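Re-run with default settings, no changes from the original entry. Doing this only to confirm the output is reproducible before filing.
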Amino acid sequence: MASILSNLKSTVIAGFVLTLAMYIVISLMVGQISLDHSWFAFLFRWLHVLSGVMWIGLLWYFNFVQIPNMPNIPDDQKPAIGKVIAPAALWWFRWGAMATIVTGLILAAMNGYLLGAVTLGLSDGGVSTPIGIGMWLGAIMWFNVWFVIWPNQQKALGMVEVGAEEKAAAARTAMLFSRTNTLLSIPMLFCMVSAQNGGFM
């Protein structure tokens, strides 16, 4: 067991294997294994949540842990964050965002509410739905990650060579848009959860 837990890749693979084994055992216990439309919709919902946890978890790590504590780190130790930790976290952060939006769009299409959600219910004469609002907030956050935060972080971390002033400006822009995403994540998660659990009456 220690060999599995000592290697992250092995740990993640073991987590998926355990999930599959658990699914098979429970399905056999209830006497039902069906790979129909609803099962695949569930699979994409699970992948959507899994990706979202990675994305929002790292967003909150940056905003609740890394950014507030950077001033407390001695200058000679800051390169370890900027050259090692932050680039790795940003890789998972942006691809977590991509996986979240892709699986979310697939899920919405599979369940037949993509157009209604994207148009906030206007396409079918209905009222705007919480899931549509949540999807738009998520899309804005995804855009910020890929087209504002990431390009500016590349400059701030020295992955793209720029002058000192531009580097400082890029760091501030990345931080402000990261904070924007933190702000938006709270109502976004409310909309996503309430869409199925009665948060809106």
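The mean pLDDT is 92. The radius of gyration is 20 Å.
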